[in-house]
Design goal:
about 375 residues
């Protein structure tokens, strides 16, 4: 997938629209969505519950933002598929039948959901792919820069291994679910940093991102490579990092090799403080969720200028080209960066992080 700069500047569209006095109109494009007022219903389909971010951050932030944008008249219909693609298809069909105005879709299986995306399109309901790029005729896509996520993870591992790192260092790669297109991009980004610099001794695509599956994979890797010969572990997210650490502990490892993660989950932040996990990738969920809500409301209210301003990137999916997109930037979260990321952004308070078992570790990095 590639990112292509927007070929027409947003400012070039402002003058003729403003001159016609239809700033909030959908324009004369026959395929434009019909405009609605503030009584907007946004269908929100999230993929799983193993990652705590969806219920803790994404849903409440989107719900609050939709309410704010619509003078408290809009609402969000929410469903979580719990990693079941069939269940998500049923949830999406129900939203189509209920005639929601727009759907924000975080796909369990980006390929399997395509027929239901087509049904939404046929029903005149715009679909915005949220966090994961779905196949089918989606209207827009918003996510983090996924290749950059993998690059940050791979680069962090190399920095932790130090200047002496080389092909004698054996790395285990714990990649995400094969049905998630983001997982492929994370892996590609990581490999762009790791290939030729260390040896990838084993690599797994972890079904449904489940920590227990990552634990089983890691146990297999330890059996093949030997617990003492694993220099580092690339884990695509924090939940799987927990499974990796569990497997290493069961094998008798007391000092963990550097292990990556993603999502800055509270447990992971505490593991980073304790030295069990080296880093996570911090992604500003408020930025992503708020932008997604603005995109959804602007799309159905016919506010094309606002929508275009929010989607200045371009993405290709396996089925469609030049999809309007917004790619949000990310950063590495290591022990010394907890205060300036998750604490500064209000994701967690110091009290939430620095519970009894972590107080001394918190004090060591200035978290008080």
């Amino acid at each position: 997938m590639r990112r292509i700069a927007m070929s027409v500047a947003v400012s070039a569209m402002v003058l003729p629209l403003a001159g016609c006095g239809v700033l909030n109109a959908a324009g004369d494009d026959a395929s434009a969505s019909p405009t609605v007022g503030d009584e907007v219903t946004v269908g929100l389909l999230l993929p799983e519950k193993a990652n705590t971010r969806y219920d803790k951050f994404d849903y409440p932030i989107i719900k609050s933002q939709v309410s704010e944008l619509t003078h408290k008249k809009g609402k969000v219909e929410y469903a979580n598929a719990d990693a079941d693609a069939g269940q998500q298809a049923d949830q999406m069909q129900r939203m189509i039948d209920e005639k929601v105005n727009v759907i924000l879709l975080d796909a369990v299986d980006s390929h399997a959901v395509a027929p239901t995306v087509k049904k939404a399109k046929a029903a005149g309901i715009p679909v915005i792919a949220y966090d994961r790029l779905a196949e089918g005729p989606i209207d827009a896509y918003i996510s983090f820069d996924n290749e950059l996520v993998g690059q940050v993870q791979g680069r962090s591992l190399l920095e932790r291994l130090g200047s002496g790192a080389g092909l004698s260092d054996k790395i285990v790669m714990m990649n995400g679910s094969p049905t998630d297109p983001n997982a492929k991009q994370f892996k590609e980004g990581a490999l762009s940093e790791l290939n030729g610099k260390v040896t990838i001794a084993d690599s797994f695509d972890t079904i449904k991102w489940k920590p227990e599956n990552a634990e089983a994979n890691m146990t297999e890797a330890i059996g093949k490579i030997g617990k003492s010969d694993i220099a580092a572990v690339y884990s695509a997210n924090d939940g799987m990092a927990a499974g990796v650490i569990k497997a290493l502990k069961k094998a008798g490892v007391t000092t963990m090799p550097p292990i990556t993660g993603q999502d800055a989950e509270l447990d992971a932040v505490q593991r980073i403080l304790a030295g069990e996990q080296y880093m996570s990738v911090y992604k500003s969920y408020p930025d992503e969720a708020e932008a997604a809500a603005r995109m959804a409301v602007a799309k159905v209210q016919g506010k094309d200028i606002q929508f275009d301003a929010l989607t200045q990137d371009r993405i290709d999916s396996p089925t469609d080209k030049q999809i309007p997109a917004k790619l949000v930037q990310v950063s590495a979260l290591t022990k010394g960066k907890i205060k300036e990321t998750v604490v500064a952004d209000g994701i967690y308070t110091v009290d939430e992080i620095c519970t009894a078992g972590y107080k001394s570790a918190c004090e060591a990095v200035g978290l008080r």
